[in-house]
């Protein structure tokens, strides 16, 4: 086992910067750094680490309706962990669920801690409304049990404290207003983008003596991150330790979702779903290269193909990951950031270009059915030879026909295989990318605590806990947890 190396190095960043699309357009030999990336991949602590053994039978779910087995697992385990933590804390906290979505976790906690005050926050009105509907259907609260409170609001670094201030002051009976501050537990299940750093910032600010809020303080945090591609650019790196780290290429944030350790079956063969997702990336790259051979079916009067992207009205759009664009995006409102992102052709969708968007899995059964479906969706026609290219054949079906393409002979079968290798190598770095981001958040939090020893209770425990079982499909399974010393739940047995 190579020694643990917390950083991503130039060679890894080069690999993360490459993209199958790029290599399909420029078919020079794909130069892949052979070393030391393999060492780096195998030194990752996240991939395949078994989850903390939490006895989820200590809680009951109010309903399992609407949840996939993966979601059920995540909600049950995280609720069990939080209920155990709450019981260990010196005082029962108010709970704030940040990015609560449809509220599965919120309801699971309410069902098991019916007396608790819980605030569910989400930027998307459809999510908050959905959560309320579920509550009315499945939660049976006693008369004295407080309802779950909801607020639909876009959380930023600046407003989380004020949102909690307002809520706590509404909840506090007037006679308690002058009594000691209430503890608040901040939680987030798959808290997108910058929500986890925002939760940690709220913890730190609410705990600092000099700006301690009179109504409440944060007693603990349990936050599982997600969608690192939605992070505000300034949120990586956060720590001094990682401050020299070059910005990660845009693909890295997307690839952080990969869990290569779960790709193989017991016999060591790639699972069908894995083969399919690799095929999707590679075929789209090859199609991109062939697009210049296509002719448009649309005339001035014909309708444009319908592939409207369904975007939430309020959730922040993807930030541009090119460092030179950051300055203009920094300090903008989410609306401005969203507009900037929509102008960014990295989405592929512009006034002149149409996105291929999602195609059904069934069309990937053969190259010709994929070309057919893509042609219809994009409103274009390829010359007949494109459907007949030797793409998508098993290795034991040798085809190896070079196709005269754009003045050169291209061996598409070999190009397909090389692109597969490229994509898999990039995916293998996924756990390392997530680990790097998580380590940076942990380091930053420790640095802030240390810098503030006089202000913040130094008897704080910080940990990184693998909560969910990745083999059940839970790619993002690591919680950053903070609590007073001795309060963090331990594994069973
Ligand atoms: C991945 S979902 C997780 C939902 C829920 N916690 C769960 O696990 O089912 C993330 C949620 O966070 C919300 N969200 C993302 N960024 C937000 C922000 N800046 N402010 C408020 N909500 C946000 C999204 O609308 C979405 O419902």
Automatic annotation (TrEMBL):
<protein>
    <recommendedName>
        <fullName>Methyltransferase domain-containing protein</fullName>
    </recommendedName>
</protein>
<dbReference type="Pfam" id="PF13679">
    <property type="entry name" value="Methyltransf_32"/>
</dbReference>
<dbReference type="InterPro" id="IPR052220">
    <property type="entry name" value="METTL25"/>
</dbReference>
<dbReference type="InterPro" id="IPR029063">
    <property type="entry name" value="SAM-dependent_MTases_sf"/>
</dbReference>
<feature type="compositionally biased region" description="Low complexity">
    <location>
        <begin position="330"/>
        <end position="339"/>
    </location>
</feature>
<feature type="compositionally biased region" description="Polar residues">
    <location>
        <begin position="296"/>
        <end position="313"/>
    </location>
</feature>
<feature type="domain" description="Methyltransferase">
    <location>
        <begin position="70"/>
        <end position="232"/>
    </location>
</feature>
<feature type="region of interest" description="Disordered">
    <location>
        <begin position="296"/>
        <end position="354"/>
    </location>
</feature>
<dbReference type="InterPro" id="IPR025714">
    <property type="entry name" value="Methyltranfer_dom"/>
</dbReference>
């Amino acid at each position: 086992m190579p020694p643990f190396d917390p950083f991503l190095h130039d060679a890894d960043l080069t690999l993360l910067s490459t993209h199958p699309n790029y290599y399909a357009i420029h078919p020079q030999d794909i130069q892949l750094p052979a070393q030391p990336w393999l060492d780096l991949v195998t030194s990752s602590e996240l991939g395949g680490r078994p989850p903390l053994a939490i006895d989820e039978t200590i809680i009951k779910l109010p309903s399992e309706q609407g949840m996939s087995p993966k979601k059920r697992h995540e909600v049950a385990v995280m609720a069990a962990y939080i209920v155990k933590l709450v019981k260990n804390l010196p005082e029962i906290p108010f709970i704030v669920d940040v990015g609560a979505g449809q509220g599965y976790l919120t309801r699971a906690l309410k069902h098991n801690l019916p007396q608790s005050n819980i605030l569910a926050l989400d930027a998307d009105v459809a999510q908050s409304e959905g959560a309320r509907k579920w509550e009315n259907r499945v939660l049976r609260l006693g008369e004295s049990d407080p309802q779950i409170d909801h607020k639909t609001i876009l959380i930023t670094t600046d407003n989380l404290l004020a949102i909690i201030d307002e809520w706590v002051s509404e909840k506090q009976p007037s006679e308690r207003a002058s009594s000691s501050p209430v503890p608040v537990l901040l939680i987030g299940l798959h808290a997108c983008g910058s929500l986890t750093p925002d939760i940690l910032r709220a913890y730190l600010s609410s705990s600092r003596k000099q700006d301690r809020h009179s109504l409440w303080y944060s007693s603990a945090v349990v936050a599982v991150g997600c969608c690192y591609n939605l992070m505000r650019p300034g949120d990586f790196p956060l720590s001094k330790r990682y401050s020299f780290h070059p910005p990660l290429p845009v693909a890295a944030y997307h690839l952080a979702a990969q869990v290569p350790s779960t790709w193989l079956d017991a016999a060591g063969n790639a699972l069908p779903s894995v083969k399919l997702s690799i095929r999707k990336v590679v075929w789209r790259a090859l199609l991109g290269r062939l697009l210049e051979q296509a002719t448009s079916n649309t005339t001035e009067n014909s309708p444009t193909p319908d592939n409207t992207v369904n975007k939430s009205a309020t959730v922040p759009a993807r930030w541009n990951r090119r460092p030179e664009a950051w300055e203009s995006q920094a300090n903008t409102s989410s609306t401005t950031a969203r507009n900037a992102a929509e102008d960014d052709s990295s989405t592929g969708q512009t006034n002149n270009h149409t996105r291929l968007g999602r195609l059904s899995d069934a069309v990937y059964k053969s190259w010709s059915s994929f070309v057919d479906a893509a042609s219809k969706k994009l409103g274009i026609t390829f010359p007949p030879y494109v459907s007949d290219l030797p793409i998508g054949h098993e290795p034991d079906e040798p085809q190896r026909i070079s196709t005269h393409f754009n003045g050169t002979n291209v061996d598409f079968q070999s190009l397909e295989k090389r692109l597969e290798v490229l994509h898999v190598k990039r995916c293998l770095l996924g756990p390392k990318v997530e680990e790097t981001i998580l380590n940076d958040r942990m380091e930053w939090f420790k640095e802030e605590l240390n810098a503030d020893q006089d202000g913040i209770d130094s008897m704080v425990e910080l940990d990184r806990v693998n909560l969910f079982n990745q083999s059940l499909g839970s790619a993002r399974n690591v919680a950053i947890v903070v609590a007073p010393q001795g309060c963090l739940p331990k594994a069973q047995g």
